[in-house]
Amino acid sequence: MTVNPAHTPLWPAPHASGAVDATVHVPGSKSVTNRALVLAALASEPGWLRRPLRSRDTVLMAEALRAMGVEIEEGVGPDGTGEFWRVIPAGLRGPATVDVGNAGTVMRFLPPVATLADGPVRFDGDPRSYERPLHGVIDALRVLGARVDDDGRGSLPLTVQGGGALEGGPVEVDASSSSQFVSALLLSGPRFNQGVEVRHTGSALPSMPHIRMTVDMLRAVGAQVDTPESGGEPNVWRVTPGALLGRDLTIEPDLSNAQPFLAAALVTGGKVVIPDWPSRTTQPGDRLREIFTEMGGSCELTDFGLVFTGSGAIHGIDVDLGEVGELTPGIAAVAALADSPSTLRNVAHLRLHETDRLAALTKEINELGGDVTETADGLHIRPRPLHGGVFHTYEDHRMATAGAVVGLAVEGVEIENVATTAKTLPDFPDLWTGMLGA
Length: 438
Ligand SMILES: O=C(O)C1=C[C@@H](OP(=O)(O)O)[C@@H](O)[C@H](O)C1
Ligand SMILES: C=C(OP(=O)(O)O)C(=O)O
Hints:
Elements: E1 10-12, E2 21-23, H1 30-41, E3 47-50, H2 56-67, E4 71-76, E5 83-88, E6 96-99, H3 104-114, E7 120-124, H4 127-131, H5 135-143, E8 148-150, E9 158-161, E10 169-173, H6 180-188, E11 196-200, H7 208-220, E12 225-226, E13 236-239, E14 248-250, H8 259-268, E15 271-275, H9 288-294, E16 297-301, E17 305-310, E18 318-320, H10 328-335, E19 342-345, H11 357-367, E20 371-374, E21 379-382, E22 389-391, H12 397-409, E23 413-416, H13 428-435
Parallel strand pairs: 2-15, 3-14, 6-7, 10-11, 18-19, 22-23
Antiparallel strand pairs: 1-23, 3-5, 4-5, 7-9, 8-9, 11-13, 12-13, 15-17, 16-17, 19-21, 20-21
Helix pairs in contact: 1-2, 1-3, 1-7, 3-6, 5-6, 6-7, 8-12, 10-11, 10-12
The structure holds shikimate-3-phosphate and phosphoenolpyruvate.
Residues 31, 104-105, 178-180, 183, 206-207, 210, 325-326, 349 line the site of shikimate-3-phosphate (S3P).
């Protein structure tokens, strides 16, 4: 958790003068877009992504696939259909170089893809990417027949010596530090000679909705996947080898990126409408309907989207966020403004996200006068009157949006490096001021 002086311009977080009342069109889901790109690249025919997220993480994914020989055309569809990416798969090539930035989805989903390239693929990224866990993917690929050259630490930078194919088969992985280890192996699994059988062996597996998203999206392109939920063994996922279909997929809005806007309705006692909120989804952000209702709001899911209304009251919450860890910063921000304490549990793995999110949230809220303590697996937040000051973001998009939520209720909050929101939501400052009618 270091502050990069190159990224310290301060953005005065707008203070809400009254209840917000806005409709916010939230761009596409990062997690869906990056899975869709990988699956389209591995398919045996071209596919389309409509309304993809265009942000640092997804552009890095697209660039990496292009570096391995996949053609990705970008354009704008007929009225109302928005931008599209057309993905034309090709035999995967090496040598290639991939910049993962600090995108968990790129650093974990692509090494298995690179085993199918016909030469070496070098992976590197931001300094923080060297600290994020990757050993589960590296060790598993070696067991499945790949050659991966790293510095022995089980992390980036590394080179996958693509051999044009991978044997695949059964493998054990401790994915307790990131569900993305499991998703990564499953996504490329249909293209391995024997498919893949992933057995999670560690303590609790976080972010299960993201694994369900992987399974759903694999099935939607024709893969056969057996899961614990479909009658298989607990903690075992099996993907049968086979060709993948090209799809025409419209990407859902990113419900985790909808979080700060919903929080704005909660914090100001206002109303925010998010068009196109899906009626059925694997995105963890869907849990916000329940969590933010318990914290004082109410919501209605209509054919148009989600209508979320704050009551003026903000209540604390005691909640297990293990399945939906990426929602923690936004919930912590609201909890710091609540009328009673909160306990956020089962998110120890957030210490290895974009930054150590538990330490960062504790430090930044406390520096504004808050009373947050880190527990072994989460945060305990006792609301206190807050004051203005600089909210550091540690190159973490969700720290920046969390700081903006606090700033709605507390005058004089300045967000350091709000541009870091470009990881998943480049339009954030404009969407935010637009919501406030500025
Ligand atoms: O697969 C995905 O798209 C994601 C899985 C989760 O990762 P972890 O299981 O590492 O928390 C989540 O936090 C991340 O934002 C996106
Ligand atoms: C943890 C996150 O991202 P990543 O995909 O880089 O793991 C996140 O977006 O909150």
